[in-house]
Amino acid sequence: MPELAVYATRPEHSRGRRYPEAAPQGRSEFQRDRDRIIHSTAFRRLEYKTQVFVNHEGDLFRTRLTHSLEVAQIARSIARGLRLNEDLVEAIALAHDLGHTPFGHAGQDALNSCMKDCGGFEHNLQSLRVVDLLEERYAAFDGLNLCYETREGILKHCSRKNAKALGELGERFLRKRQPSLEAQLCNLADEIAYNNHDVDDGLRSGLISLEQLLEVDIFRRHLHAVRKQYPAIPERRLIHETVRHMINTLVSDVTGQSLKNIRQISPKNPDEARMAKPLIAFSASISEEQQELKQFLRLQLYQHYRVARMSSKARRIIFDLYHAFIEDVKLLPPQFQEKAGGDKARTISDYIAGMTDRYAIREHRRLFAVEELWS
Ligand code: MG
């Protein structure tokens, strides 16, 4: 690993954990965070949560787990180029989607509307709840007791109201400061990962075609370059090569542009970088191309009628589950009934958010299918 830059986050300068612990042996504080995330229950559940396509629609589509691994890989590459902390970006990337509901964004929107009078539901805040509170693995504390810097990176967005309730971690939203460069970087790595894997999954599913994608500048440019070099290349390999080249372009663009931004400000430490404008960024031209690709995916893939049908069923499942539990908490598994004595709505929201796609479908069947009276 290259020597860390002065503006990189150093584990020995961490603002620490909520519950103080002895320093780890043989690994850094951020490596310990990464290890705790990988061993968590919420991390294993990512395997059965939808990114865009419902898990059982095909074996090759991305899930939240493979998405998170791709984000971690891309984030580490960029971190290396900028001499930022690779261990911290890995921990943030692996944890960034832990709070997602089943069924992707449709699930989150449905749960948010169920919870509208009870504080709402937001997946970033939920990821933080998972690592701060909901994981039950350690004798001495709830959650994973991660370092401040990892938690800061997980909390990408936050309303002012929620920020006020979060204390030290919410401060930057009130003072309009940036998070660490490592956290900024994970945000862009997330975007690079999903734009590119959604192109790949979209083509594989047949919901979008190569012809349609040729309207998108960044895709056409890279596809032509591959075809020029390999005129007889079969279509599947052509797609993989094109996506691979696009990821390469985006990673080197972020690295180059961010280095320029960093040099302009020359922060002498991570806190000076937090006070500047966002320094991790695409160049203007690539940013424009990314917007075009995003817009294409929104219209042609995320709003495709078959995705819309899936989303509509997903919303119904979440609504039904939520209202059944709100009306009768005795339908909840015993450990959740106990907690529902405190904040009923939030307990139900935590239970539903933790479900995998197939668990939610099964739970819905158990509660509503009259053929399954005894379940
Ligand atoms: Mg993500």
Shape type: globular
% residues in beta strands:
under 5%
Please report the total strand number as a whole number.
Answer: 0
Q: So how many helices?
A: 19
Helix content: 55-70%
CATH class, named Mainly Alpha
Specify the CATH architecture.
Orthogonal Bundle
Q: Which structural class fits the helix and strand makeup?
A: mainly alpha
What is the distance, rounded to the nearest whole angstrom, between the alpha carbons of the first and last residues?
A: 53 Å
Q: Tell me which ligands are bound.
A: magnesium ion
How would you sum up this structure, described in words?
It is built from 19 helices and no strands. The chain is mainly α and 375 residues long. The chain has a single domain, classed as Hypothetical protein af1432, CATH 1.10.3210.10. The chain is globular and about 60 Å long. The chain starts with 28 loop residues before the first helix and ends in a 7-residue tail after the last helix. The structure holds magnesium ion (MG).
